[in-house]
Amino acid sequence: MTDAPRYARAMWTLFEPIHAISYFSPECRAAFEAAGLRGFWRGYFAGRVAPLGAVGPAPVIALFNGFAPDMVRRALPAVWSLAEPAAVIDARATGAAVTLRRLAPDAGVVEHAASSLEDVVERLDLPGRPLGAANADLARRDDPYERLWQATATLREHRGDGHVAALVAFGLDGLPILVLRGALDIGRDYLQPARGWTDEQWDAAAAELTDAGLLDRTGAVTDAARARIADVERATDQAAAGAWAPAATAEIIPIAKALSPIARACAAELPERTPIGVFRPWDVDADPEAASVQA
Known about the structure:
Layout: H1 3-24, H2 26-34, H3 40-49, H4 57-64, H5 69-75, H6 85-103, H7 107-122, H8 130-136, H9 144-169, H10 175-184, H11 188-195, H12 199-211, H13 223-240, H14 249-269
Helix pairs in contact: 1-2, 1-6, 1-9, 1-13, 1-14, 2-6, 3-6, 4-5, 6-9, 7-9, 7-14, 8-9, 9-13, 10-11, 10-12
């Protein structure tokens, strides 16, 4: 990889766990409940969708990619009868800020990290990135902890939009990538219920992947599947590289150093297993060229 895609992946390992606390921390759950959204999935779907407005299930099935359509339809549009999108945006920001204050008490470091990431957000290429663009369009908040979380959310959703496009391009969008990840590292026992698919749907997708040579007869991931997943990850990194291409290493390293302790604290806060996989935040001091950061 050229420098920009490699650094795009390295920085993702730092901003993704900061963003992800909004799904799992008790403070964030409490903020969603105070807004009227009881239950994990109401907060999850409303929290991610809110920048787009009170949309129904169809766009979310497409944009979120891996969720079973019936699972999305159980949450949307019903959540909008419980909380307006503006209230949900406030809830996710304030809940994340409370969590980050506990995990990263140095407000000066947070202010620096937020300002630095906001500069990166200003450089994002937004065509074809609906979730990234909707988050980038939100009004900048005053609180530095809220600003930091929002910047990481924007970068995360921008990268996620590119990742979904790469999955589509390589024929792994929707359920197939989940079946492969379930066999490869995360585990079907966790991933299938987390994304709402039935046994029949999962088994049918696994049979198709076997016929395509991406799973073997024992259900293990084949070398061909590993190669295709690697292609998806390279395309994802390339699609996310634009914001980092103008930034010299001298600019990236200070941002990474400011984010690193916050990212490590947030990663430690997350459950042992998540649908995103295991976070290994980039150790910028030990590896300033991000040579060890791999898909």
